[in-house]
Amino acid sequence: MGVLTSFATPRRLIALVAVTVRIISTWRLSRxxxxxxxxxxxxxxxxxxxxxxSYLPAATQPFRGITPVSQGHRANATFVFLCRNSDISGVxxxxxxxxxxxxxxxxxxxxxxxxxxxxxxxxxxxxxGTAKLRLSKTPNLISNVRMPPISFGLIPSExxxxxxxxxxxxARRGRLQMTSQRIIYGGTRGISGAAYLVSxxxxxxxxxxxxxxxxxxxFNSGFFFKHELLQPYRYYWRVEPSVKxxxxxxxxxxxxxxxxxxxYSFTISLEEHEPTVPTLWASVKEFMAQYPQFIExxxxxxxxxxxxxxxxxxxxxxxxxxxxxMDFWRGEAYTKFFDFxxxxxxxxxxxxxxxxxxxxxxxxxxRPDQIHFFxxxxxxxxxxxxxxSGAQWSxxxxxxxxxxxxxxxxxxxLRRFEALFQ
Length: 422
Known about the structure:
The structure is a single chain. This protein has helices spanning 9-43, 88-103, 120-123, 157-160, 168-180, 211-222, 253-259, 280-290, 301-304, 326-330, 332-344, 346-349, 354-365, 390-395, 414-419, and strands at 77-82, 110-114, 150-154, 235-239, 244-245, 264-266, 269-271, 315-317, 322-325, 371-373, 379-381, 384-386. It is of the alpha/beta class. It has one domain (9-419): Spore Coat Polysaccharide Biosynthesis Protein SpsA, Chain A, CATH 3.90.550. The strands form 3 sheets. The protein has a 7-stranded mixed beta sheet. Strands 5-11-12 form a 3-stranded antiparallel beta sheet. A two-stranded antiparallel sheet has the order 7-8.
């Protein structure tokens, strides 16, 4: 399986014209003049380093009074979007939300990845039914708007397909057992609704609990950053279908990560469903014993464990939103870590998700101050959301209810993260 290379500039423009036409026709053009004046006045009080290193829920946290960076001063970064052709409606919605709230000012590129070739209909965003976006009927509305580059990539089969060395009979028995126990994500049947959201990974349209779902978790854990289209980049922002960004982001989170030596960031943290990872922590402890040189002395073990590392408390960062440094995943420590977990077969014999794998690695191999909570970025992935409050809510013009936020609910792990800094 090969890689679909980036479109040449004209096709790249055409593809994103279709994706963004709803933004242009329904919002930007109708408000462009007032938006311009509002942006001028509001930017005078916004800093590129808007989120400070204190993680306490202070209303004064986000903004520090310097204008944002220009479009010419950007990080080496991209959006990464793993999706399928059938996800097109959710893909358009997510891109519209991101472009509206952030990327229309910064023009960062988009990389789309799929385990099957993207159809021409997907690339041109031609939808059937009531959601038609026909390029032939699209007026030339963006002649004066700079559009970001877009690339479509095919995932190599060796990065996606269940490895031949996996004992399929054992893996099938595990899936059937989890099905009989009605363990979410664990078996052979899909599930729906809020139940799957107890887990830290999300579905991308895959049948939850299925082999393709496990393929996705394994790919996101150890292979996405090796894809040819991502090799030129250091930082990425993961985006998924049908997510919402509630607030204007008036600074560059990529540059914030770069300038403050951050390697991983999140908006929601929660507990994993324990029966899906019964032997994961034992494997982690085995790795730590064999490779103590990779463990950061000032690590975040207290986020992962209530007893100094004996047991895993299931806390992790919800990886459907993550802005992170791919050089961290490409480094020796994480490479050894993933290879060690891969050899255990837990992605298939159990249902190890990329969320706990990423979270455990970031907590063990980085300092706490290198992990960042973007408190001021409002975000929703059904059915959980993070909504800023106080001054952050006002400055970001957030379209969410601050009282409807997962931050301090019973299954949230945010308090454990904040305790690292107290």
